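FORM 12-B: Structure-to-Sequence Request
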């Protein structure tokens, strides 16, 4: 029987977790979808090593160091390329300098135990594989049947302007607030995580006072707490929230927004076909 290779975690880095394409369909039970913060980049790396895009990868905010126990083929950031890693060799995984999240895909995928149909770690609930720690041995699954066709990919080109749709509580805010949201250059604060990204700029003010009962949310929801500073909900967002949602970021741009580093400048604009407040 062929021995499966193993990745040994030498240094776990920051914010490192096992992720795949997520676990949709459980929000009615309060379980977020989770999954890779940048699924397009994770999918690209999986394809470079011949994996299906559903294969589990390692996601990290940087400083992850791994050692191969057995030969491996991996694709990593920031170079978006496949490499052969000989037995005993080490590799370090960091994001691209302009990104928050980096990835390593290994041919065969990370063979973690799935939970609710996914190998993704939910940072809020703890559902999914445990956070990798120094000394952990991560088993790699069997190599897929197909070969490697391309071993180099193009680095992603990041956008800084994001289409938004009016949220379910847009009418809780003044007309000027919608204008501010969609014309201001916002700055991403240091308060970023897999849960959400807080933006800083002119306060968005309400016309409706009082408390809002918790209601469902989707990734990309822009909540506005009492200080008027918008918070964009990301992969591990709560499934319900009590702050009004003024807008929702179009899903096509959410990965780029999740990769915006603290200090980055970004803008929101009404999505084509989005109705205006009347």
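FORM 12-B RESPONSE
SEQUENCE OUT:
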């Amino acid at each position: 029987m062929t021995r499966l290779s193993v990745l040994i975690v030498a240094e776990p880095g920051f914010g490192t977790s096992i992720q795949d394409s997520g676990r949709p369909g459980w929000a009615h039970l309060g379980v977020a979808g989770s999954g890779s913060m940048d699924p397009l980049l994770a999918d690209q790396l999986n394809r470079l090593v011949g994996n299906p895009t559903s294969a589990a990868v390692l996601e990290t905010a940087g400083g992850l160091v791994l050692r191969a126990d057995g030969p491996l083929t991996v694709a990593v950031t920031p170079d978006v390329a496949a490499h052969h890693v000989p037995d005993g060799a080490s590799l370090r995984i960091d994001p691209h300098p302009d990104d928050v999240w980096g990835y390593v895909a290994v041919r065969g995928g990370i063979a973690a135990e799935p939970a609710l149909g996914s190998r993704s770690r939910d940072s809020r609930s703890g559902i999914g594989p445990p956070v990798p720690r120094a000394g952990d041995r991560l088993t790699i699954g069997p190599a897929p049947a197909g070969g490697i066709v391309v071993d180099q990919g193009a680095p992603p080109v990041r956008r800084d302007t994001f289409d938004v749709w009016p949220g379910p509580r847009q009418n809780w805010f003044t007309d000027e607030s919608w204008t501010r949201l969609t014309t201001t250059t916002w700055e991403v604060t240091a308060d970023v995580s897999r849960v959400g990204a807080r933006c800083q700029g002119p306060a968005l003010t309400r016309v409706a006072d009082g408390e809002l009962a918790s209601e469902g949310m989707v990734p990309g929801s822009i909540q506005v707490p009492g200080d008027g500073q918008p918070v964009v909900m990301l992969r591990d967002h709560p499934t319900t929230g009590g702050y009004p949602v003024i807008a929702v970021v179009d899903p096509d741009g959410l990965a780029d927004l999740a990769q915006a580093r603290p200090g980055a400048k970004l803008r929101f604009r009404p999505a084509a076909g989005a109705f205006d407040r009347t």
